Amino acid sequence: MTRILVVEDDPNLGQILSEYLQLKGFVTTLCTDGEKGFEKFKTEKYDFCILDVMMPKKDGFTLAKEIREIDKTIPVIFLTAKSMKEDTIEGLKIGADDYLTKPFSMEELILRVQAILRRSGAKSDQSNTINRFELGGLTFHYDRSLLERPSGDVKLTSRENELLKMLCDHMNQTMERNAALNAIWKDDSYFNARSMDVYIAKLRKYLKEEEQVHILTVHGQGFKLVKVE
Amino acid sequence: MTRILVVEDDPNLGQILSEYLQLKGFVTTLCTDGEKGFEKFKTEKYDFCILDVMMPKKDGFTLAKEIREIDKTIPVIFLTAKSMKEDTIEGLKIGADDYLTKPFSMEELILRVQAILRRSGAKSDQSNTINRFELGGLTFHYDRSLLERPSGDVKLTSRENELLKMLCDHMNQTMERNAALNAIWKDDSYFNARSMDVYIAKLRKYLKEEEQVHILTVHGQGFKLVKVE
DNA sequence: AACGGTTTTTAACCAGTTTTAACACCCCTA
DNA sequence: TAGGGGTGTTAAAACTGGTTAAAAACCGTT
């Protein structure tokens, strides 16, 4: 799971950006100015920042500088309206990982984010991710692809494992179909969608014995892993 | 020391490039087509790639794709005659770190190389590979091709040794099939893939007595050496 | 060059995983 | 309440990997 902090003062663009990233399987937080962005960054854990350069109250460069004081290695992409030389230089000094000049295509943004994540290696995906989930009387170990149950453990296949992980990451929230498909199947085609339905059925079978936990469908949207305390 | 692989089909440009980089303190290898470039990459260790996009036999994108299967994090700069949009997208998909459109100044190239190296951190010094891995109650000595076990040590053959090393280097992450095949077998053909499966089975047999450690398969992707603490 | 032991590849068959397909059912809306 | 799209379920098909053993390649020694 990759959590992205999006700070963009244009609410429309910010919304579109945020939703598109979620569709592609990322978890995002949107802030509309630099100060709010910094508050968010201090209270929650993020793996990636996408920052507008020109913003009221606190500009993107200043924000990046402050963020980098807390986390020196977090990847940062700047969004900038102009492609001026001094902007580029300034950004590089702070340690920007990439630049996008408005207007840009969503596809290009996604590709750049993925390129940077690939380069920065698995260290972020690794240490940040939760590996153990308590599901009532069951325990799910993502790293071991194992679901521990009183009635006997289940070795999960990789698809089962990824899907259950994603449901757990969205515990008590709706996990959108397209987000899961893009994150796990890398493509939200019709057949992959049906494939996912098959896996949901399998997971339901595994979880059946634990009454406190079940996967419910949100018609037309996705699935929700519900845990009753 | 930073070793740069330069693949450029124009011998004049390639020569100038190569010499200029050497002047700046880099160690370079020049290849004049994609196939030769890939051969070089497989047999020697590099820290950086500068690839021409349009080349005979094997273009820069294809080459980069193959290189990235072996080393996912190695920085790549493309040299391209045109600055077309689809080229950019295609390059980003593969994970380009930067672009230079011909003609470019040598100075600009150097600056971009340095910027990327600064960004990707001081991990260029990989000449010191780890030789000893603790696998629960077992100890794997790569340099001695030896797996120490309570029940008796195992002398590993070179394929066993390389494969176990690669799994250990990717501890708790997925080691991709193609990456291993290209790195160890130097070729990801069908039969080599099957050969690898045979070796995975052998390693599993050696590791069987240690419950904390096992190789699990990530269907369609590769294998993951998991260590439970 | 021929031998014997070791390592690696090839082959065949089997087992497990994932996708596709088909059909039934449900939910929403016109 | 009829219709269409979304979902549940099951089973077969397609694909990928596990296992074993024999064949081939390799290597040092004679």
UniProtKB/TrEMBL annotation, chains A, B:
Family matches, as PROSITE patterns: OMPR_PHOB, RESPONSE_REGULATORY
Gene Ontology CC: one annotated term: protein-DNA complex
UniProt-listed InterPro entries: CheY-like_superfamily (IPR011006), OmpR/PhoB-type_DNA-bd (IPR001867), Sig_transdc_resp-reg_C-effctor (IPR016032), Sig_transdc_resp-reg_receiver (IPR001789), WalR-like (IPR039420), WH-like_DNA-bd_sf (IPR036388)
GO biological process: regulation of DNA-templated transcription
Residue ranges of the annotated DNA-binding region, renumbered to this chain: 130-227
Modification 4-aspartylphosphate, positions: 52
Response regulatory domain mapped to chain residues: 3-117
Any one Gene Ontology molecular-function term assigned to this protein's record: phosphorelay response regulator activity
Keywords: DNA-binding, Phosphoprotein, Two-component regulatory system
Domain OmpR/PhoB-type: 130-227
PANTHER family given in the database record: PHOSPHATE REGULON TRANSCRIPTIONAL REGULATORY PROTEIN PHOB, REGULATOR OF RPOS
Protein's name according to its UniProt entry: DNA-binding response regulator, OmpR family, contains REC and winged-helix (WHTH) domain
Lineage, highest ranks first: Bacteria, Pseudomonadati, Bacteroidota, Cytophagia, Cytophagales
